[in-house]
UniProtKB/TrEMBL annotation:
GO cellular component, one term: plasma membrane
BP-aspect Gene Ontology terms: isoleucine transport; L-leucine transport
Pfam families: Branch_AA_trans
TM stretches of this protein: 12-29, 41-61, 81-99, 119-139, 151-169, 189-211, 231-255, 275-302, 314-333, 339-359, 371-389, 409-429
Organism: Halalkalibacter krulwichiae
Annotated protein name in UniProt: Branched-chain amino acid transport system carrier protein
Entry's family note: Belongs to the branched chain amino acid transporter family.
UniProt gene name: brnQ_5
Function as written in the Swiss-Prot or TrEMBL entry: Component of the transport system for branched-chain amino acids.
Length: 432
């Protein structure tokens, strides 16, 4: 018989999961989508929710099937794959990209507007405080749900709710016209924007934190862990969907007042300022800083738990201290260069991650052989590796022309068909 957490604990866990996913990047994508989709808003948002909410929740379920152990999930492909892929995931989305970025974004949105201009000293002081708070909250993983799910997240949700209600009750204008980017297929345009959040990768990391919190409450069987994870995921999914819908609506109704903006951050700043005056900057600072802090805590905790387990000679407090110090250094010295290196790597591993997630979900119903995993991942990796190289500036005309014949390649999903073909070939070779 399956057992469930008490309702209050389930809600707190769901809010905790919601806070982990709601990073600064997730707040910036929907307003831009709203401005560009215009009258096709709801179709575009639906596509965004499929990949921006649905895919990460599938990733959480996939990792719950192996009790939160990414190593076990990776071994379904091959032992050699399991030696490299999990470490690559944790380092790339953690200290090499995600964690330092949370500190700099919180500084740029939450501090600089009130200072008037940025400086190296103010950046150092702000990020020092930010990562010190991150370290303190992350220091005791067993209290994360209480500190984040029961304290930080309700405050964050309340502020977002205030902004959303004001935007719906007193919209800045009528819904704008459709731009060329969404004119032909708004749903698919939103679908691709949801991919850009790259939350499916983050879900494999955050899933470890969520599942460890469930296990700490005495749940050990796969079915109990999975059912409680799904319940928390539904709460998080509802919360994320509400936020994305609200932000997209704000963007779609903002053009008459603030004009067309280049990015979602500028749209949010313009909308909150128009709705609340100077008080809007403070509200936006609270939302962005809160979102960055909860994401930073989630990434530091997840990376700390994984790396301290993988390299047992280093304790969890030591690992998260190193992670916070490294992230502090990168946020102040070399984040732009680090992003330039990390982004191509993220583009390489993202399709591989999606294939791994989908095959793992499939295995919940039907056995998937190792040869199918290998074939599908190799097929996706061939295309994604070249996409990563082109992002890094290594573009070869002959290969670009060759890959352009692949279905959906021009919209960034050229790896899909090679992955399907590779999986089929892997299955046939496995049988022989």
């Amino acid at each position: 018989m399956k057992r469930s957490l008490p309702i209050k604990e389930t809600i707190a866990l769901g809010l905790f999961m919601f806070a982990l996913f709601l990073g600064a990047g997730n707040l910036i994508f929907p307003p831009l989508l709203g401005q560009q989709a215009g009258e096709a808003l709801w179709s575009a948002v639906l596509g965004f929710l499929v990949t921006g909410v649905g895919l990460p929740l599938l990733a959480i379920i996939a990792i719950s099937n192996v009790k939160g152990d990414l190593d076990v999930l990776s071994k379904r492909v091959h032992k050699s794959f399991a030696l490299v892929f999990p470490v690559l995931i944790y380092l790339t989305i953690g200290p090499f990209f995600g964690i330092p970025r949370t500190g700099t974004v919180a500084y740029e949105v939450g501090v600089v507007p009130f200072l008037g201009e940025a400086s190296r000293f103010s950046l150092f002081l702000a990020t020092l405080i930010f990562f010190a708070v991150t370290f303190w909250i992350s220091l005791n993983p067993t209290k994360l749900v209480d500190r984040v799910g029961k304290v930080l997240t309700p405050i964050l949700l309340l502020v977002i709710l205030v902004i959303a209600i004001r935007a719906f009750v007193s919209p800045l204008g009528s819904v704008s016209e459709i731009t060329d980017a969404y004119r032909e297929n708004a749903f698919f345009g939103g679908f691709l924007e949801g991919f850009l959040t790259m939350d499916a990768i983050a879900a494999l990391i955050f899933g470890v934190v969520i599942i460890n919190r469930i296990r700490e409450r005495g749940f050990t069987s796969v079915s109990d862990i999975r059912s409680n994870t799904i319940l928390a995921g539904i709460i998080a999914g509802v919360g994320l969907s509400f936020v994305y819908l609200s932000l997209a609506f704000m963007g779609a109704t903002s053009v008459e007042t603030i004009g067309i903006q280049e990015n979602g951050g500028a749209i949010l700043a313009g909308v909150t300022s128009s709705l609340f005056g100077s008080f809007g900057s403070m509200l936006l600072a609270i939302v962005i800083t809160g979102a960055c802090l909860t994401t930073s805590v989630g990434l530091v905790s997840a990376c700390g738990e994984y790396l301290s387990k993988r390299f047992s000679s280093f304790s969890y407090p030591v690992v998260i201290a190193v992670l916070c110090l490294f992230s502090l250094t990168m946020a102040n010295l070399g984040l732009s260069q680090l992003i330039a290196v990390s982004l191509p790597l993220l583009i390489v591993i993202y399709p591989i991650t999606i294939v791994l997630i989908l095959l793992s979900i499939t295995e919940s119903f039907k056995k998937v052989t190792s040869s199918v995993y290998m074939g599908a991942i190799i097929g996706a990796a061939i295309v994604s590796t070249y996409d990563g190289l082109t992002t890094a500036g290594f573009d070869i005309d002959i290969l670009t022309n060759l890959f352009s014949y692949l279905p959906l390649y021009n919209v960034g999903v050229g790896w899909l068909v090679p992955s399907l073909v590779g999986g089929l070939l892997g299955g046939l070779l496995g049988k022989r």
